[in-house]
Amino acid sequence: MAERLQKVMANAGVASRRASEKLIQAGRVSVNGKIVTELGVKVGSQDFVLVDRNPIDKEKKVYFLLYKPRGVISAAKDDKGRKVVTDYFTDFEQRVYPVGRLDYDTSGLLLMTNDGELANQLMHPRYKVNKTYVAKVEGTPTNEELQKLRQGVVIDGKKTARAKCKVLSSDFQKKTSVVSLTIHEGRNHQVKKMFKAIGHPVQKLKRETYGFLNLNGLTSGDFRPLTSLEVSELKKTVRKGK
Description:
This protein is of the alpha+beta class. The chain folds into 3 domains: about 5-55, Structural Genomics Hypothetical 15.5 Kd Protein In mrcA-pckA Intergenic Region, Chain A; about 65-125 and about 215-240, 2-Layer Sandwich (Alpha-Beta Plaits); about 130-210, Alpha-L RNA-binding motif (Alpha-Beta Plaits), CATH 3.30.70. The chain has helices spanning about 5-10, 15-25, 115-125, 145-150, 190-195, 230-240, and strands spanning about 5, 30, 35, 40-45, 50, 55, 65-70, 95-100, 105-115, 130-140, 155, 160, 165-170, 175-185, 200-210, 215, 225. The strands form 4 sheets. Strands 7, 8, 9, 10, 13, 14, 15, 16 and 17 form a 9-stranded mixed beta sheet that branches. Helix 1 (about 5-10) crosses helix 2 (about 15-25).
């Protein structure tokens, strides 16, 4: 089935759809050997598309849910030779990449796909995909401190969006607590910085949910393919956010 050229480029992970449109208009894209500058062009599986003289990969789209362990890098490769999330998917024909990232010392739910357009949409804060984290923090946050998280705190000079949070348990002997936090943003080290801003640094962090997806049935290092219904729901989620 033929699709608009910019959508095919976005699905191949070249760039977002809007950025792909700019590449087309700049004369950097060719279809079957002919430079294309119009945005209405449609291409199919048999068409040969080049971006800056490099062929794009129109491979079948795949989607996985990975329970990322601590001590694994959320990247396709690491200059220091450390284990990366793509190491779990070497038996697949398609090359998959993480949707966003989890810190090296953070575990939990991470989506993996070769669908560049959906990945870009899910990572954009405008689509407001909720993510729930469970953090082990120093001390026990008071309701007043939690209220600051709910209203938004300033990190790196910018206020965070409203969050949902609650204390799940407290260990008064060890002076630690387990707190859940739900946000839709994805700034660098955001959860850790938010807890630090209220005086309760994170000792351990795990992402439990991503939108409607959770880790049920998986243990650390496990992964599973998303069902077609789950993929449809993810796409519906970003459509609602437009």
